[in-house]
Amino acid sequence: MQTNDIKLKNEERTRCEVWTRVMGYHRPVTSFNPGKQSEHAERQFYTEQRTQS
Fold first, then answer.
1. SS3 sequence of the chain
2. Could you tell me if 12 and 6 are in contact, meaning their C-beta atoms sit under 8 angstroms apart?
3. Could you report the per-residue pLDDT of 14-26, keeping only the tens digit for each?
4. How many other C-beta atoms can be found within 10 angstroms of the C-beta atom of residue 42?
5. Could you tell me which residues come within 8 angstroms of residue 40 by beta carbon, excluding any fewer than 6 positions away?
6. CA–CA dist 15, 43 (Å, integer)
7. Which residue from 14, 23, 26, 53 puts its CA 20 to 30 A from 33's CA?
8. CA gap 16, 29 in Å, rounded
9. 4/9 Cα distance (integer angstroms)
10. How far apart are CA 51 and CA 48, in angstroms?
11. Residue 25 bridge partners (DSSP)
12. C-alpha to C-alpha distance for 30 and 37, rounded to whole angstroms
């Protein structure tokens, strides 16, 4: 079975709370004001490449 074959109904889902580090401590994104929540949604992640020795 492939992972994209799994179908869940809305009532079967579990809410996932996302936390992020802000100013040295962790906070749930749901506690942010709407402006900070939209900033969090716009964040871009990157993978750092190894340097050649």
1. CCHHHCCCCHHHCCCCCCEEEECCEEEEHHHCCHHHHHHHHCCCCCCCCCCCC
2. no
3. 989 999 887 889 9
4. 7
5. 20, 29, 32
6. 21
7. 14
8. 11
9. 14
10. 9
11. 22
12. 8
Contact 29, 40 (CB under 8 A): yes
Tens-place pLDDT, residues 29-45: 999 999 999 998 998 88
Whether the pTM exceeds 0.90: the reply is no
pLDDT at 22: 78
Averaged pLDDT, 2-7: 75
Q: Phi and psi of 35, rounded to 5°?
A: -65, -45
Q: How far apart are CA 22 and CA 25, in angstroms?
A: 6
